[in-house]
Structure formats: structure tokens, C-alpha cells
Design brief:
Layout: H1 2-14, E1 21-23, H2 48-51, E2 55-59, H3 70-80, E3 84-91, H4 114-124, E4 128-134, E5 137-138, H5 140-145, E6 160-161, E7 164-166, H6 172-189, E8 193-196, H7 211-221, H8 234-262, E9 267-268, H9 276-281, H10 286-292, H11 310-323, E10 330-334, E11 336-337, E12 343-347, H12 350-362, E13 366-372, H13 385-394, H14 396-399, E14 402-404, E15 408-412, H15 414-419, H16 425-442, E16 447-451, H17 455-458, E17 464-467, H18 475-486, E18 490-493, H19 526-530, H20 542-550
Parallel strand pairs: 2-3, 2-13, 3-4, 4-8, 8-9, 10-13, 15-16, 15-17, 17-18
Antiparallel strand pairs: 1-14, 5-7, 6-7, 11-12
Helix pairs in contact: 6-8, 11-12
Bound molecules: zinc ion.
Length: about 550
């Protein structure tokens, strides 16, 4: 691996001026010595969450208290140049002797403080520590002690998952219990922050009818919890929004606790994903969360056939576009065979891991190796991350805190995903945007994802906006697009773009149609639109043509080539 990496590094340095990314500021100084302490580097006054660029995680299981070889892993941290570690602490399973009797301890843990030992070792080695929580399910004894904290279906039965009981996001489990656990962990081990694997409670497909939900929803709206999923029901739409707001309340509450007990730099960072429809399912408002976040822990571990390697770069640009390019977005990158097939004890082939990680680096994502269990018989698990992290360290000046140069923006929003995609979010919500993204990528046309509420802020550097079947648009979003066109921007729209308001409840037919020279009713898909540039609003993609020429790319003569 060293040879191609060296070649690539030299290439990058020689071509820095021509690269499509621009390093905008001096950043971390770990390049010459990846092991320089994140916590004790007195020459750098920036907070840990701007300096810890390379992360790692052993996802501890209940057999690990008996077999965790901490000295071996400390050597691994050093060998890979890891600067921060994510360590399982509490939630479903506690890996420390919690004072809360219902906080289930890992089998075989006894009074051992495995999490605390690892946190202490990491701090001694100069690494930052994220205490990892898993705040969403409990064991049988907890259920019997607090039956009113559990999520319940329409018949009153508790929701179950993997044999455990799912807690309700509107219950004191989130308001009181988890904050108490966070306090305990901070006081015991002083982690830099918290990540949480599954902090958002039930997803959109499961309506909770517990007493807490019924009371809070009625207090907020004067309505009863909707009995069924019906996107045409305004109460169901209220329920959707109410759920998004609750997740933001949880995010803010947990951060108030960590700041109060651990200081202003002690962060609760939850976790977020990169597939927009999946974030909608989990009620994670990416834009609002990124406005709050100082660092985003990204859970997008593996390539899937529907999206390909390039998806990882897309995710990096999408999250950085909301969060800011100066902030860090580590991504959990599975070193094991996750996805399909899911052989979690087996190492993923090195080329698969490498291409996934490198494409993430290209999108501004930072590495975070992820291994299941402290002891694996497939020793190939431990060979892939090191060279990639070292390469990242050697080239971080080109990989971190940079702002892409692009003149094309692809507009997206979660409201469109929810209220237009409805019960078919993948096909209606994801595919139109993914088609454009793949077409632009194959055409070597640099682009940026632009959130529909950030058009005014982000589009001033863009020449072209693409609206892929963005049917559900608010009046302010439409106004932002009109202003963009009025000052000379080009516009491409497909499908039902701008036909409805943001709730998809009221038609605004032809709201943007006047901005087009020709309005053909519906434009079915990206391929068709690409073949009918005449339908594009002024001034005909001059920037795209320039970039295309620079890339020696030719317009596909047949739409199906897209
Ligand atoms: Zn509930």
C-alpha cells in the first residue's frame, strides 16, 4: 500500500493548485507525528473536537470483560495513529459498575470498570474519549420497575426489539434517567464527550401510544395521537413535526447536562447518518442538528449496491454543507464484513474498506475504524486501518478544513423527502436526487448538495441549481430560487418540482414554471431532463458546459447512458 499512497501523495502535492478542493486555513499539526497528544498538545489551543481527526472503536460485547487485552489495543492505537476512541460505557449494557441498580451490567463484568480502564488508558496515551451510549432499550427488570417509561403500540403492548423493551423518547427515561447516567460517567472518567448509537427512540414507522406521548401531544396540539399513518391527515403531519422537535429537545437536554457537569467542551454528539430518507425515518433533522453540533459522528459504515463507493463522498459533502467545512465529521467505517452479506466476525476485503474510506476522505470525512469485539480470530481485521490512517495523517492538509470549488448545487430537503416521498421514500424521495448525483459524478462535474432552506446562503457561489423532483417547497424556498434565477443563475428542475407547499397539502401549480422557457408539465427523470436541456431555465448551463469542456466530457447522446 505504501507505494500507491506515496504516488498519490506526491500527485496531490504537485497538483494542489489545480485540485477541486481548496485548503482554506491552517489546520491540525499532527501530520508529521500522528501520535502527538490530542489532550496535551499545548502548542495548539483549539478544542479537542477540532484536533482529534482519526478515530477508532472496538464495539465491546459481553464476552470482552474476560478477554480485553488493553496493552495490545494501546499498541494498536499507537500503530494506527488513532487520536480518539469511542468506548462503550452505558445504556442497554453498562461496562462500568454503575450505581444505578437497574443499569444492566455486562455479563462477567462483576465490579470491574472496563470502560473506565480503557478511558484512563486512552487519556494517558493522549487520546480523546467518546463514551458511547446505547439509549433506547432495557431489560426485563427495568421494564417491570418502570412500565410507564416504555413505548407502546395502539393496543397498549410494549414495543420489543431483540428481546428487550423499547423506551419512549417522551418518558422520564430520556428526561431524567439518561441524564443521571451521563452525570455519573462524567464524574467517574471525564470523557471528552458522548456518542450514542441509537438515541432517537422509535422510528417513523411505529407510533407510540404510551401515556406520556398521549399527554404531551395533546398538550401541544389539542389533538389525540393519530391512530394510523396517513399523510393526508393534518394531525399525522403534526405528529411528524412534533417528533422532530422532540429529538431536538433531547439533543439540547443532553448537551446541557454534559456542559453543566463536564464543562463547555464536554459534548453530547449522538450520532447521525448520511442517507436522507433514513434520517427522516429516525426523526433526525440534519440541518437543525448540524446547526447545534461542533462535531458530527457519522454512522454510515459500508457501501451498499444501490449507491456505490461515491455515496461516501456525497455524504461528506452533504453533512459538511450543513455543519461547516472547518468542523470534523468522523465516520464509523466497518473493518468487518457488514451489510450484505453480514458476516460480522470476518474481515471485510481490504480493497472494499480502502475505497470506501478514501471516497469518504474525498468528501471531507475523517476516519474512524470500527471493529466488533476486543478479540477476533480473523486477524486481517487489524491490518487495513493502519496504512489508511497514516496516509490520512500525511495528507491531512489536503483533506481537512477545505471548501470544495463547485458551481453546481443539487437541492434537497427532508420535508420533500417526508411529505413528497411519504410511504415510498426511497423511490420518490431518494432516486431523483441520486440519479442527478450519479450523472454529475460520472460526468466529472463538481457539485455540492444544497439544503433548500440554505439556498440564499449557499447559492451565491453557484451558477446552476438542480431541483430533482423537489415537489414540496415552502414559499421562502421558492423565493430563494427565484432570486437565484433573477441574478442570472441557471435552473434545472425535474418531476413535480415546486408543485406543492412544504406539507404537500396545497398545490402551487407552476410556481416556478414561469422561470422556465418551456414548461412541459412533468419531467419524469434525470435522464429525460438531461436530454431536454431546452427545458432548462436560462442561461443554459454555461458553467456546466465550461466544466464539462475542462473535463473533456461529452454530453451523453442517449439518456439511458445516464
Ligand atoms: Zn410514548
Amino acid at each position: 500500500m505504501s507505494s500507491p499512497h506515496e504516488t498519490r501523495r506526491v500527485f496531490l502535492k504537485k497538483s494542489a493548485a489545480a485540485t477541486t478542493f481548496l485548503a482554506v486555513a491552517d489546520f491540525a499539526t499532527f501530520a508529521t507525528d500522528p501520535a502527538v497528544s490530542v489532550k496535551t498538545n499545548s502548542s495548539d489551543s483549539r478544542p479537542w473536537y477540532r484536533r482529534a481527526l482519526r478515530w477508532g472503536q472496538v464495539n465491546i460485547n459481553e464476552r470482552d470483560p474476560q478477554r480485553y487485552d488493553i496493552p495490545w489495543w494501546r499498541e494498536y492505537w499507537k500503530r494506527t495513529g488513532t487520536q480518539g476512541v469511542v468506548i462503550n460505557a452505558g445504556g442497554i449494557v453498562a461496562y462500568y459498575p454503575s450505581k444505578f441498580p437497574l443499569h444492566y451490567r455486562a455479563a462477567g463484568l462483576g465490579d470491574r470498570d472496563l470502560y473506565g480502564e480503557l478511558a484512563q488508558a486512552a487519556h494517558k496515551d493522549g487520546l480523546a474519549v467518546f463514551a458511547r451510549m446505547d439509549s433506547n432499550r432495557v431489560h426485563e427488570d427495568f421494564f417491570h420497575a418502570h412500565p410507564d417509561w416504555m413505548a407502546r403500540d395502539a393496543s397498549g403492548e410494549p414495543y420489543r426489539d431483540t428481546g428487550l423493551y423499547v423506551t419512549c423518547v417522551n418518558s422520564p427515561y430520556y428526561d431524567d434517567y439518561i441524564p443521571s447516567v451521563l452525570r455519573e460517567i462524567i464524574e467517574r472518567s471525564h470523557p471528552e464527550g458522548f456518542a450514542d448509537n441509537n438515541w432517537n427512540g422509535l422510528d417513523q414507522r411505529s407510533i407510540c401510544f404510551c401515556e406520556n406521548c398521549q399527554r404531551k401531544f395533546h398538550d401541544k396540539t389539542g389533538q389525540s395521537i393519530p391512530r394510523a399513518r396517513n399523510w393526508d391527515d393534518p394531525v399525522f403531519r403534526q405528529w411528524i413535526q412534533w417528533n422532530y422537535e422532540r429529538r431536538l429537545e433531547v439533543w439540547d437536554l443532553f448537551n446541557r447536562v454534559t456542559h453543566e457537569v463536564g464543562g463547555p467542551d464536554c459534548l453530547w454528539a449522538g450520532m447521525i447518518g448520511g442517507v436522507v430518507s433514513a434520517q427522516c425515518q429516525r426523526f433526525r433533522d440534519c440541518r437543525a442538528l448540524c446547526e447545534r453540533g461542533e462535531i458530527m459522528m457519522l454512522d454510515e459504515q459500508v457501501r451498499v449496491n444501490e449507491t456505490g463507493f461515491q455515496h461516501n463522498g456525497e455524504v461528506g459533502k452533504l453533512i459538511h454543507g450543513l455543519l461547516g467545512w472547518d468542523k470534523v465529521v468522523p465516520e464509523s467505517m466497518a473493518q468487518y464484513q457488514g451489510g450484505r452479506p453480514n458476516f460480522r466476525l470476518t474481515a471485510k476485503p481490504e480493497p472494499e474498506v480502502r475505497l470506501w474510506m478514501l471516497d469518504g476522505f474525498a468528501g471531507g470525512i475523517q476516519p474512524w475504524w470500527h471493529i466488533l469485539g476486543a478479540y477476533g480470530m480473523d486477524r486481517r481485521l487489524y491490518k487495513t486501518a493502519g496504512p489508511l490512517l497514516r496516509w490520512h495523517a500525511e495528507n491531512q492538509e489536503y483533506l481537512v478544513n477545505r471548501r470544495p470549488i463547485a458551481t453546481v448545487g443539487v437541492v434537497w430537503s427532508q420535508q420533500n423527502q417526508d411529505y413528497h416521498g411519504r410511504d415510498n421514500p426511497e423511490e420518490i424521495g431518494e432516486h431523483p436526487r441520486r440519479g442527478w448525483v450519479n450523472a454529475l459524478t460520472r460526468a466529472r462535474i463538481p457539485y455540492l448538495p444544497v439544503h433548500a432552506d440554505n439556498i440564499t446562503r449557499d447559492a451565491d457561489k453557484l451558477s446552476v441549481l438542480i431541483l430533482p423532483d423537489l415537489a414540496a417547497m415552502s414559499a421562502s424556498q421558492i423565493e430563494a430560487v427565484k432570486k437565484f434565477v433573477a441574478r442570472g443563475g441557471s435552473l434545472i428542475a425535474t418531476g413535480d418540482t415546486s408543485r406543492c407547499n412544504e406539507w404537500r397539502a396545497r398545490h402551487q401549480r407552476a410556481t416556478l414554471a414561469a422561470r422556465f422557457r418551456r414548461h412541459s408539465g412533468t419531467v419524469a427523470n434525470a435522464a429525460q431532463l438531461s436530454a431536454t436541456h431546452a427545458a432548462i431555465a436560462r442561461p443554459h448551463c454555461r458553467a456546466a458546459r465550461r466544466q464539462r469542456a475542462a473535463c473533456n466530457w461529452r454530453t451523453p447522446s442517449r439518456p439511458e447512458k445516464l
